[in-house]
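Instructor's aside before we start: the two examples that follow are unrelated to each other. I chose them only because their records fit on one page, so don't look for a connection. First example below.
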Amino acid sequence: MHEFTIIENILMTIEDVARKENLTKISKVNLVIGKMRQIVPDVFTYAFSIAGKGTLAQEAVLQIDFVTIEMICSACNKQFQIEEHNYFCPDCGGTKLQLINGKELYIESIVGE
């Protein structure tokens, strides 16, 4: 389950930010995650609640905004979103694709006091 590893890194970053900003409690964490990361929302939220115990974020609400997978075909330059993990161009059937969006993984904001 790679979710726990990601959560541990996020929590370390949150703790660093909280220390630098003199925060004593984190109430909300907003994340942006690309769908190519294959994060299962329920598992991720559960991992956050477990790993966050004893941290400044132990009572924080986790908000996740998912970014769709977007590609461009090298053969015909068609830009499109990937649906159902079908990695081919809907126009020409090409499979040589370049990723535009979908691998994001970052903390958009942290709300605390």
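Example two begins here.
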Amino acid sequence: MTSRRDFLKQSLLSAGALAALNAPSLAAASPRPPTRFIFMHRGNGLWPRVCVPPSLDKKAMECENRKEAIDADLDGHDLPEWLGPLAEHRENLTILQGVSGKMCTTGHHSWCSALGVFKANERPSSIKWATVDFELAKLFPSPAGHIELACFPLGGGNARGSLDGVATGFSARGPQQPNYAFGSPRVALQELFKSVSSDPEARTQYQLDRRVLDFIAGNEGSIADSLSGIEKAKVQNYADSVEVIRERNRKIDAMASTIRKHVPQLDAKYLDPAVSTFDRQIGHTEVLLGALISGLTNVVAFTVDELGHRYTGIPGIEGEKVNMHDVGHGKSIGGLDAETIRELARTHHMTLMDRIVKRLKSVPEGNGTMFDNTMVFYFPDGGETHHSHGWEYPFIILSGDNARVDLRRRYIRLPNYGQPGHSTLGNLYTTLLNAYGNPVEHYGALDTGLTRFGHGQTGPIKQFLRV
């Protein structure tokens, strides 16, 4: 017989409901559109040297080589070749270098570290607080609260879920509360949009789930009344969790006509369990766009890959299952050298960013478009190299016109580790939270290694805050 706990776990996994457990109730409708955040992170490091505009002048390149501060307008500068897909979004683009994260778990796998700014491992007990994407989701509530998509690894780096299932993700809802992510576009599409599915069986299942939840809500409340102490608290928590799901479903049902207009129409190849990595990433991108445009969510975490994921679909070696760990160690595969494979992968990631920005720029909102109220971040989850140490986390950032942070059309290198003005991941995320309504003094753990330099570590990066 299915236990109450098992039923709740399966129900909560649907439509990202685990994220909703910690989400506050929806705020009253505001005339100002919500800001949307997309965090795209990848494994196997991102070398700072490949992010430098090749057209920087001699003086700027000397500063770059010494890792000293640079703030250059991208207008008139050539972009690194792999950033070519973003060329038409230059006005919205910032390349940010020099942010450290030595307080995070680095190396092969980082789990929640890069989004949470703390040391983490595969155990939920290592999760200290909600990751920054969940903190931002609280500021801009939505029915689904937060959605996470992933190209899962099959060995190490997560809970070892299947590529196509729903498994432990790389974000966290709160202390000791890992999030769950959709591993395939097919499963994500089925679960996120099943309330408006054209499949009669899916609609019937959705209605059955609703009735079961209604029954449990009344039953659990009655049981709780007859209990006391810890048992009463446990049962009441179950009842409260069910009520959160019911409220989410009511709000989704009220949006049905809007959601129905934006259900992603995916080609069969994106729904195939054997979909290639490149196509899996495209499918996930279409799902996240549908979820954002329909209003299901305002915040998406997208694990574009993880070191343990076996890549398929790389141009020139489409049939190979590429071990990115081998690539990290410089091995050639299928006749392609490691540097070429890395560049092909990250160039493809930029085509995903381009797809997101173009689509959101095509959707009217207020006096502009949806992209005006969107920020997209691409960064390595472990840092600057394959065997990273957290000295640097390069970021590629695309910001709409209404962004409340000054991160547009610039190449920025912040002062090097230990230099006055150096900033960490915690400072960057504190900047975002402060700019968008959470006046937290500092987000994340501090780097004890920086204390010997005598510079303050807390607070936002003030040069990024709009006055």
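The two ends are 59 Å apart (CA to CA).
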